[in-house]
Amino acid sequence: MSKKKNISQFRNIGIMAHIDAGKTTVTERILYYTGKSYKIGEVHDGEAVMDWMQDEQDRGITITSAVTTCEWGKSLIQIIDTPGHVDFTVEVERALRILDGAVGVFCAVGGVEPQSETVWRQADRYSVPRVAFINKMDRTGADFFAAVRSIKEKLAANPVMLQLPMGAEDNFSGVIDLVHMQQIKWVDQTQGAEYSTEDIAPEFEDIAADYRDKLLEAISEVNDEIMEKYLSEEDISAVELISAIRSATISRQIVPVFCGSALKNKGIQPLLDGIVAYLPSPLDVPPVKGLHPDTEEELEFLPKKNGPLAALIFKVSMIEGRKLSFARIYSGRIEAGSEVFNPLLKKKEKLSRILQMHANKRERLKEATAGDIIGIVGLKDSGTGDTLCSQDYPVFLEKMEYEDPVISIAIEPKTHADQEKLDTVLEKFTIEDPTLKVSKDEETGQTILSGMGELHLEIIISRMLKEFKTNVNVGNPQVVYREIVTAKAKGSAVFEREISGKSHYASVSISLSPLNRGEGVTFESKVTQEQVPEQYIPAIEKGIRESLDGGYLKGYPLVDVAIVLEDGGFDERSSELAFSVGASMACKDALEKASLGLLEPIMEVEVFVPDAHMGDAISDLNARGGKVESINPKAGIQVVKAVVPLAKMFGYSTALRSASQGRGTFSMQFSRFDKV
Ligand SMILES: Nc1nc2c(ncn2[C@@H]2O[C@H](COP(=O)(O)OP(=O)(O)OP(=O)(O)O)[C@@H](O)[C@H]2O)c(=O)[nH]1
C-alpha cells in the first residue's frame, strides 16, 4: 500500500497525552474515519483496537507502543501509540526517537497536567514538531482558552489557535476554522463521519474576526512575508497562510491548536488535515545521524530509497510465540526474505516477513523503504535499540539509553507447573522490555524482578497470570539501592590453580576510588606490557565490572567508582580465565578493605491538591522525609513540588487519596541517587 505513496506524503507521528486526556479515543476515531476500523470501539467497552493487550483493557490505560498505519487523502499516516504513565517513560522515549511529529492531546477541563509536562519536555529534547488538540470540549468545565493558556504557561510553548470551539460543554456544537474562516459541523447520526462546512454563524462572527487577527499577528511574528501583507492590510490567502504555519510548526516556533470532542465525534477530520498540512514528512526533518562502528566517523542518512540501509529497531514484541521487531527505516530498503547486517552483533540476520501494521490486521509487504515503520518477522538475536544496515556500509544509529531500575520485588512460583513456565515467560518479557531486569537471590532462591516503578512491576505480574497462566507469590516492593566507595581502597590477588588438568596463573592489583554522582564506573590501566600483556586487559576489566555489579555491602550494584589496574604479573600458564578470576578476587579484596556507603533513589514528586487539603498533603510529604521545593496555585488547586526518597513513597496514592478526600493526584519521576 505504502508503495503508491511518495515519501513527502508520509507522516510518522505520535499521539502524546496525560492519562485520561483521551489519547486512545482520539486514535480510535482517527482509525475509524480513515476507514481502517469498521466500528468505533469505545474505551469503556474495552474494545479499543489499539489497546490490544488484556491488561490495558482492564486498566483502561495504554502501555505498549503499537504502530498503526492509516491513509488520509494522499497521505500515509503511521501512528506510534505512546504510553502516558510515568513508569513507562522509556517507552515514550523509544517512540519519540523515531517520530517526525506529534499530536499533544489535552483535556479541555484539566489543561496541561503533570505527565503531559514530562512527555512534552521529552519531545523538546528530541526536537519533535507538534500540534495540539484540546479534547473533551463537551465536558462540564471545558475551557478552551484556559487550556491554551496552560500550554503557554506550563510548557513554555507558543500555541497558536487555528480553530475556536463553537460553544462548550453540552452546547459544544462544532468548530470555527480560522484559516479558511468557516464553521464546521458534524452529523451525529453518522458518528461524525459526515460533516459540513458553512459560513460562520452571526453569533460567532465577532470572536472569529478577533481571533483571525490574533492568528495573523502570531504568524507575522515568525514570517516576514505574512508580516508585510498583514501590516499593509493586504489579503492573505489560505494557501499562503497554511504554508507559513507549516514552516513555523516544523521549525518549532509555534504549536498550532485544534479542538473538539473525540467522544462526541467532533473535530477529528480537521485534525487529520492539520497533521498532513503542518507536521513534517521524513524529508522535512534533519537527516538521521550515526557513527561508523570502527572509525567512529559521523555518517548521515538522507531518506532515500536507493541510499544505504539504515533502520532502527525501536521495539520487540513476542506475539503468538513469535518475535516481532518494529523498525523505522531511515534510508534504503529492506526486502522480505533478505539478509540485513547487525553491527552490534557483527552478524547478518535473515528476515522472513515484513509487515505493515494496521489496527486490526497485518499486511505482508514484499519490501519496505525509507520512511516506513514496519514489523519484521525472523530476526533472531537483534534487540531493541539495534541498528540494521548493510555490511558494506555499517553504522550505529544512536543507541537508546535506559535508566537503571529503582524498584524490585521477589517472586516465587506457586506450583511446580508455574515453576516450569516462569523462565520462558520471564525470557519473553526481558526481550520485550529492556528496563526489566531478572536476577536470582542466591540465599533464598527467589527470583528478583527489578523495574522502573511499582506499576511497571504490577503490570508484569498481572500479565504473567492473565496471558501465561503463571501464578506467583509476590513479596513487598523493595527499593534498589546503589553502593559506593567513600575513599580510595587497594586490593590484590594471585590466582594459581589447576583446572581440568591445566595450570592457570595471574596476579592482579587494583585500586577503587570514588567518583562524582552519576559518573558511573570507569576503568583505566596503568600497567606495562611487561607487567600484563594487553590481550588480558579486557578480561581483567570484565572480571572487576562483574564483581562490582554484584555489590558487596548488600548486593546492590556499586556505582560512581574509578577502577585503576595498578600492577600485575603473568607467566606461561596465564590465561584470560585466570586474569578474569584474579581480577574479581582483587576487587573483593579492595571492597573488604574499603569504606562503603549506600545511595538511594530520590524521586521528584508533583502533587495536585485542592486548597483545603494542602496542609495535610504537605505534612504527609514532610513525614515521608520529603523536601517541599515549591507550591504554586493553579485554578483552585495547589501544585506542590517536592523531592522524596522512593523508599518512603510506597502506598502514597492511597495516603494521598484519603488525605484529600479522593481529589489529590500526583506524578513521580526518578531524579537522582543520593546518600541514605
Ligand atoms: N466527555 C468526554 N470524554 C472523553 C472524550 N475523549 C475521551 N473521553 C473519555 O475519557 C476517558 C479517557 O479516555 P482515553 O481515550 O482512554 O484516554 P487516554 O489518554 O488514552 O488514557 P490512557 O490510555 O489511560 O493513557 C474515557 O472514559 C473516554 O471515554 C471527550 O472528547 N469527551
From TrEMBL:
Keyword Nucleotide-binding: yes
Protein's organism: Desulfobacula phenolica
Cell division in keyword set: no
Keywords linked to the UniProt accession: Cytoplasm, Elongation factor, GTP-binding, Nucleotide-binding, Protein biosynthesis
Protein name: Elongation factor G
Source taxonomy: Bacteria, Pseudomonadati, Thermodesulfobacteriota, Desulfobacteria, Desulfobacterales
SUPFAM superfamilies linked: EF-G C-terminal domain-like (SSF54980), P-loop containing nucleoside triphosphate hydrolases (SSF52540), Ribosomal protein S5 domain 2-like (SSF54211), Translation proteins (SSF50447)
SMART domains membership: EFG_C, EFG_IV
Transmembrane segment boundaries: none
Subcellular compartments: Cytoplasm
